[in-house]
Amino acid sequence: MDVYVAGRDCAKRYDETRLGGADAARLAKYPQLAQRDDWRVSRFLKQQQTDNGKPCSLSHSGGVALWVCGGEAVGADIEYLRPRDFSAWYGSGVIHAHEQAWLVQQKDVLTAHYAVWTLKEALIKALAWDFADLAAVGLRRVCGQWGLHGGGQAWQGGVWRLSADYVAACVWRGADNGMRWHGYGEWQGLTAQRLWYWDKV
């Protein structure tokens, strides 16, 4: 699995003439996107490598972009860590009872909540589902073991700390050939720390 990361300093390397068909059409419809760092950085990142027909997933947050390719199906999400009140998650039904039980066991409350959120986002991307489907995917305890579930399937995946301020989740189906991290600009030399990992259960 190849994982590519680029930061805000790469926005100036964005090349509008190299946009793919779908991105070019989107920009034509919403030209203001070209002024946003998230757009410029994420599209720069997509232009640095070819996917060779592999499934890929794109995410961006706070000026940092993540692009993941590999597996039979793949989803990814990156989030900028900032203090927030998570209480609304519980009343909305987005957090499953199993996920609540898992969260209670974690010492780093902030990072653990972002882990659950990024996993859910990654799963709905991998399934090509909508944001409204977040409650139907995520961490589940099956036969005493924790695993990632969505769409009636078990998934492999994990959560990594990219820096003091960013975490990312990647989920996939298919062989686990390891994670190969590639950084651009200020993210060159990136060493990602794996925080949690789940095999298919």
TrEMBL record:
Domain of life: Bacteria
Keyword terms, alphabetized: Transferase
Organism: Conchiformibius steedae DSM 2580
A single MF term (Gene Ontology): magnesium ion binding
Pfam families reported in the protein's UniProt record: ACPS
Residues in 4'-phosphopantetheinyl transferase domain copies: 73-128
Stated name of the protein: 4'-phosphopantetheinyl transferase superfamily protein
Range of residues in the leader sequence: none
Record SUPFAM superfamilies: 4'-phosphopantetheinyl transferase (SSF56214)
InterPro entries per record: 4-PPantetheinyl_Trfase_dom (IPR008278), 4-PPantetheinyl_Trfase_dom_sf (IPR037143)
